[in-house]
Design goal:
alpha/beta; disordered N terminus; Alkaline Phosphatase, subunit A; 325 residues; globular
């Protein structure tokens, strides 16, 4: 009950906007944005193609259901569009940049600011950990271990791909454990399991509910591994965010989007697990991928919001109740 009261009070503070300023792009910086605590580490895990009820209402994802109960969950969170690839690009840069399909990243290339360029400009680090990724083939579209480049937004940005050190930011998911133990995890880490473990499905792991069960087990193990790491016991703030690219069944029924994003990509679960933040919190306020991007920017001290993350008048708000400490 107390957490629900905290969420309402925090969201009320957002609406009051006690101290408005302007970023270099002319976007509002609200009191709620400035109230988002600074985070030293955020691990963003993106899974595939499942709506809210299929994860938290069907009984096939016990680890995710437990984490949602113990920590925080946004109950009205919406994807940007269909299909997968434009959602990843939107979450990373504030726009789909006109991408409407899961085409090759050499075709769906963008030269635009993104979260990685923002972090670099502030002297912060970033990287991706991808299931099935082969460092010897950094620009492969697919690998036999079920890596898919369409789920790696870094490769869509030609300005990142052209950097000499680009490959050093791309890692196999198997190297995450060593990064956690050695405290070399970047400030922002994007984690994408392979096609069997991210609930997408591939040859040999394409059926339900088995792919949901497998993905739930993989994510449960991943969260436990992060929570055993030194960063989780540190005084600095750390968070694990688990979200989905889209609900690929949303076009058949229900509301698909919010906050100015039309048509949207369906209602999806988004969990926020923090080492110093709220517990047992269900946040009912409407959010989407752009809300999450804005919150990540706030958490790293960035207030020049990318693209639609700046759309305050459309209802984009930072997810303060879930990140407050």
């Amino acid at each position: 009950m107390m957490d629900r009261v905290m969420a309402s009070l925090a969201f009320g503070a957002m609406v009051l906007m006690g101290a408005l300023g302007a970023t270099g792009g002319g976007a509002r910086v609200a009191a709620a944005d400035r109230a988002v605590p600074r985070y030293e580490h955020i691990v963003l895990v993106v899974l595939e193609n499942h709506g809210y009820e299929s994860i938290l209402g069907a009984g096939h994802a016990p680890n995710l259901a437990r984490l949602a109960r113990e920590y925080g969950v946004a109950t009205e969170f919406y994807a940007t569009t269909h299909p997968s690839e434009p959602n990843y690009v939107a979450l990373f840069s504030g726009s789909t940049h006109g991408i409407r399909d899961d085409g090759p990243f050499l075709v769906n290339s963008v030269d635009a600011p993104n979260l990685a360029t923002q972090l670099q400009a502030r002297g912060l680090t970033w990287g991706g950990y991808f299931g099935g990724y082969d460092p010897a083939r950094p620009f492969a579209r697919f690998t036999h271990d079920h890596y898919a480049a369409k789920h790696n937004p870094f490769v869509n940005f030609v300005n990142l791909r052209n950097e000499p050190g680009f490959a050093a930011h791309q890692h196999p998911l198997s190297s995450l454990a060593a990064a956690l133990r050695s405290t070399t995890l970047p400030n922002f880490a994007l984690v994408i399991p392979n096609l069997c473990a991210d609930m997408h499905g591939a040859r040999g792991c394409e059926r339900e509910p088995q792919k949901t069960i497998a993905g739930d087990a993989a994510v449960g193990a991943l969260v436990a591994e992060i929570q055993r790491a030194p960063l989780w016991r540190a005084a600095q703030n750390a968070a694990i965010v688990i979200t989905w690219d889209e609900d690929d069944g949303a076009h058949r029924s229900g509301i698909q989007g919010c906050c100015g994003t039309l048509p949207g990509g369906g209602r999806i679960a988004t969990l926020v697990i923090t080492n110093h933040g709220p517990r047992h919190l269900r946040d009912p306020h409407p959010y989407n991928h752009y809300s999450l991007l804005r919150t990540l920017e706030d958490a790293f001290g960035i207030h020049h919001y990318l693209g639609h993350a700046a759309d305050w008048n459309a209802g984009i708000r930072p997810m303060l109740p879930l990140f407050a400490t």
